[in-house]
Amino acid sequence: MSQESPSGPGRIALISALAGAAATIIAAIITVLAGAVHISITAPPTAVVTHTTTVAPSISTGTSTQSPGGRQDVRVWNMTVPYPYADLSFDAGKVTAFRCCSDAYYEPSSDTKIPQLRINVPYSLGVANANSSKQQCLTAINQQPNFNPITNLHKGLLICVQANGGVALLDQTQSLGQSDTLHLREEYWPNPGQ
Q: What pTM, to 2 d.p., does this model score?
C-alpha cells in the first residue's frame, strides 16, 4: 500500500493548518501555566434580579405658623440630613439627595474627608441664643458673615442663614454620632409676600 503525500497547494494548506493548531495549543499551555486562565466546570449561574427603589430623602417633619415663644409668621422644620452628599433648601425646609442649585451641601471635605456643611447663601455663626429673632439673625449675617464650610458640627451649633425667600435660624439638635447624620431644627421667617 502506498501513500501519496499531498503536493502543491494542498500540502501548503495542510502545513499551515498544522502550524496554526500547534501555535494555538502552545499559546493555551503558556496561558494556563502563567495563571491567566483557570478552567473549571460549574453549574450555570442562577439569575437573581433585585429591584431597589430609592427615594431621595425629603424630610419636613413639622410645619407651624407660630413657633414656640409666641413668635409670629415662623415656619418650623426638623430636618434629618444623611451623610454623605445631601442638599438642603432653607426656603422649603427640605433635604434631598440631588446635587443642584441648593442653599447648602452636606458632604465630606475634599482634603480631610470629615463631614462639612457648605452653605452657598449668606450666613453667620454669630448668634448665641436659640431664641434669636429674625432681626438678630440679619444683624449677625451683616456684621459677622462667614464664608467657609462648617466643619465644627456639634449639638447646639446655631447658624443664621439668609436664604432666597427669607431668613432661617438653624439649630443642630444632636451630635453627629457614628453615621454622621446631621439633625437640624430650622425656624424660617419668609420675606413678606412669600
A: 0.65
CA 93/CA 42 separation, integer angstroms: 54
* Domain assignment of residue 167, given as a range: 75-190
C-alpha cell belonging to residue 135: 432681626
Sheet containing strand 94-96, strands side by side: 94-96, 86-89, 104-108, 115-119
Kindly report whether the peptide bond that precedes residue 82 is cis, defined as omega within 30 degrees of 0: no
For residues 16-42, one letter each, b for 16 or more C-beta atoms within 10 angstroms of the residue's C-beta and e for the rest, the string is eeeeeeeeeeeeeeeeeeeeeeeeeee
Distance CA 6, CA 150 (A): 86
**In whole angstroms, how large is the CA radius of gyration of the chain?**
33
- The answer to whether 104 and 91 are in contact (CB under 8 A) is no
Q: Quickly tell me which residue has 494555538 as its cell.
A: 24
The H-assigned helical ranges of the chain are 9-33, 134-143
Q: How far is CA 136 from the centre of its chain?
A: 33
Label the pairing between strands 158-162 and 94-96.
unpaired
Residue with cell 465630606: 108
In a domain, 166, yes or no: yes
Structurally, how many domains does the chain consist of?
1
Q: What is the pLDDT of residues 40-89, one digit of tens each?
A: 444 444 333 322 223 344 443 333 434 455 556 899 999 999 998 899 99
